[in-house]
Hints:
Largest sheet: 5 strands, mixed
CATH topology of the largest domain: Heat Shock Protein 90
Number of strands: 8
CATH class of the largest domain: Alpha Beta
Order of helices and strands: HHHHHHHHEHEEHEEHEEE
Number of domains: 2
Strand content: 5-15%
Number of helices: 11
CATH architecture of the largest domain: 2-Layer Sandwich
Helix content: 55-70%
Strand order of the largest sheet: 2-4-5-7-6
Amino acid sequence: MCLCFVCSCLLHQHLNTRTQKISKMWLQLKTDRTFGQQRSKVFLQHLLFWVAYILLMSAKDLIYHPVYWELLLTNSYTNLLDIPLVYFNLFYLIPRFLLPKKYFNYIIILIPLVVLFTFLSAYNHYYSFYHFFHTPLFKAQFFISIEGFGVVFTELILLIGISTALHLFNEWSQKEHYARELEKKNLEVELMLLKNQLQPHFLFNALNSIYVMMDKDVAQSREMLLQFSDMLSHQLYDSRKEQIPLEKEVEHLHNFIQIESVRHSDLANIEVNLNAPEGYSIAPMLLMPIVENAFKYSKSSQQYNIKINLYVNKREMQFQVENSVNGLNSRKPSGIGLSNLKRRLELLYPKEHELSIQRSGKIFLVNLKLILRPLELDKTRTLTSATYVNG
């Protein structure tokens, strides 16, 4: 009982630590860059936009003045008047009226502003070309003619349209990024919770098996305790990782099966064949629910059979567990373990797994096909198969 109490305390402490980590994950939802780096990136984007715009406008104005570098200086100066209008639109009109779908108010405010800035910009162009670059008067007066006003007005509308489109696209892109990050965090939290639901289930079953064996065989219970120690290590450390070597998961299965085989030794015939080559990885605690389910629902007062097989062909793993089902448990041959397994497979191996659960008479069969992910190992080694026949 002391052993059970100590292990229970360790497990409780471990789960509390996990819960705290889950809570922190919600508070640590950030983008990949710091706030200062984000501001630098935004500044650079806006700077590149204005440089590109001035280059294009200067190229267009070559029909009025032949010296390109002088046009660059002029457009840099004349477009200073457009900057307040552009950013007033981006950071006030759009969030205040356009995004809330107040389109009429948006247009009513924007159009008079564009007309006002058209006159200011047109006279600014006229003054710059005529007085600074001594452009012939008839060419400079074009900017203050009806046609000139039309050209400047069109350019402003184009500038507002392009800047608005880029701004809205950037806003949408950021929201999509945040949504993906939030979804990723949600999945991580869900997977963490699923693991935490499974771990106490397995550990307390193992503790119960050891407790029962203490009254029967002290030496055997010591051996089981060592195996349980390995299981606890796997639960506390390996289960935190996204992927572990396949042979580690199989070793964990061996320990669990050995503990259960001792507990069920009076009536159970257990056949195990686990061939796990090196070089492949798997999500921790993925196979355990199937094995635990077989032991849980096979137990009865009569002889029963459990067969566990695992083999790998290239990258495809096939894990098959077959067990007899007694009359008392036949109505519910699967529980929270297999339900959690289905969800974890959906999250971790989308379109890379096939899970089949079948019931035929008093035989319950679970067959899992999984596409394994490779490890960076040069050599492969196959674990020796084991067979436990009791009864």
